[in-house]
What does this fold into?
Amino acid sequence: MQNKRFLLHATLFHVAVWGRARSSISDKTIESNKGYMIKRKIKRWGIVAVILNSVCMTAMADDLLQDAGSWMQIVGEGSLKVVDPKLEKGRIWLEGQSRFDDNWNHWYQGMVRTAVGYSLSDRATIWAGYTWLPTQNVGRSYVSQQDVWPAFRYVLPTDIGTFTFRTMFESNFIQGNDVRFRPRQMLRFMHPLELEPRLSLITWDEFFVRLNTTQFGGQSGFDQNRAFAGLGWSFNKSFRAEAGYLNQYLDDASHTNNTMHHLIMGSLFINF
It folds into this structure.
């Protein structure tokens, strides 16, 4: 029952934000400039409230094993025109992460991700990628998970900020030949602050679902949700740093026990 309520909450969050993104575009054509600016501010903070509510409601769940830690990541993305001008629409994605839990006392997971992509337009990109996840959880055997996945990303600029929609469909090779299929959906919002355009409010939510039951990947159904709220600083067009709070809600293999990680997350994004 707890998982059903959580999935409903995450779904309503995505629908609410998408609806507000669409309405912000249509309202501009029917309202006066003064009225439009007032509604724009109301909608902007309404979106922030919805996302922060998603984080807070997750954190208020009962009967959870709770823990603190941190994630650090570096993400590089750019056009393949640096290799050949004819490959201008080709993209490359390189990413590395290091993750700590047990109240910062234990390194439990790393991540290396790489992908190639193709820009369908200035807003839409398709990807094909590979992820390696070396994992050493406390009291468990070492696991070297490998994933392959296609992905689609769409960037939607609006007057209140930029929305990014990313859909990934992972094939998780955890142990042996037993493959788990796990789609994941992210919705991200970035709003530059008026007092300092280089400083942005960053919020995103991503949920994961297991499509099939596997021996090492758990029973099918809800897998996890990640909700983030923080700030970003753009040094220039090539470098941006972000830091904030990440709430990770995890379901175990049998859907009987839940874990929540309260994480400090720091990111560096490099564009080329």
Remarks:
- The radius of gyration is 19 Å.
